[in-house]
Amino acid sequence: MANVKHLLKKSITIGSSALLLVSTLLPTLGIFPAQNVKAATLGGQALTSGGSFDTGDHNWSSGTSYIRNTASWNTFGSTQISGNWFNITQNTANQAGYAIFKGSLDLSQATSISGEFKIESEGVGANFKNAGDSTGFILTPAGYNTIKTNSSKSASVDSSGVALSPINAPRGAGLSIGGIPNSLFVGQDLYYNVGDLLGNLQAQNPLYAIDGSNQQNILNQTASGSSYQIAMRQTDASGNLILGTGDLNGTLSYPNIQYSGDSYTQVGILGIQPYANIEKESQTLTWTPTGAGATAGTYTGTLTLTVQALKSDDSVNTSDKPVTLSTTLTLPQKMSVGVAGSTGSNYGDLSFSNNTSTITGNRATEPVMVNYINATTGKKIASMSSSSITANIGDHIGLSQPGGVTASQAGVPGL
What we know:
The protein is mostly beta strands. The chain is built from three helices and 25 strands. Strands 6, 9, 10, 12, 13, 14, 15 and 20 form an eight-stranded antiparallel sheet that branches. Strands 7, 8, 11, 16, 17, 18, 19 and 21 form an eight-stranded antiparallel sheet that branches. A four-stranded mixed sheet has the order 2-22-23-5, with no helix packed on it. Strand 17 (about 275-290) and strand 18 (about 300-310) form a beta hairpin. Residues about 1-40, about 195-205, about 215-220 and about 405-415 have low confidence and may be disordered.
């Protein structure tokens, strides 16, 4: 048992160096003993030299109360909070907004997250399909600072404002993940980027073939434009969006399925609400692992997105059957999840309601190493082995002097 008289009271956040995910360096707490007294205590339990402690509470059995609290999310980019809604974009061109859940997912176990999305295009005669470029879920191993800094990056465009590859910025064609390494977007891809209306030559230029090789219009010409499809897209290790090949006739290289949605018209009231065409839907993202991946720290499994149209009162639109898209992937065991959206030259109001959000599965954990330090020399005591505390990523861990306050606090998962 550690002989401790005075403890350095210190609190850390698990994964703090990555902010949203695990730290690559193990967090360490230093304990400064002076004379022979009682052991360090953690949550009312003595922490012994070489011993370990598990804070517990590693699943989302109480996840509903966490996830429906806006304080359990980090918001940045163009996102604004209104009540329990995340207004991801605000009817403005070239935006990217995020709400990232503060608890990391353990993808070695089955997990799911769901919520309500709203896509709104303002104006008389507007079409919700023209409201932006993307809205849906993202999975990422990137940290808070990386995502926040990246959210303000502008995409590369030609003199006409048409997106050019490589796509390494989140706005427009970047689907909110452009510029964020090894990340995944799963949701509504509202715009097909391949060239302009008369862009046969552009379509042959790989700089323009971002989402696929062609799309035929009534003149049998290649064209970019609104294309309401559910898609799964990824970035590579450099943060570049992996370009699509094939076409919308069913040969695209990334998982996708066409989805018409079911919209309604909001009548404008002067000074109160605009005319708008609105589509509401629930999205449920489910991960089912099948085993460890070939690379250490990864897992292979099936990722599935189910989309169900909703009525204006948020009830299920039973006249529209749910649409499901699935694929097999190998992903890191520990990832952050969030909702995101982007606009380019097409723009509108993209929102996510947190009122009905749900989450299941296990929280990702990380070990915290505790070293015993000689108060006089400032060096680790050779005869006292380090202890280990297993905690949820995002938990606040501290140590207190015997008889002091409890140092282990469950808190809200994440930051």
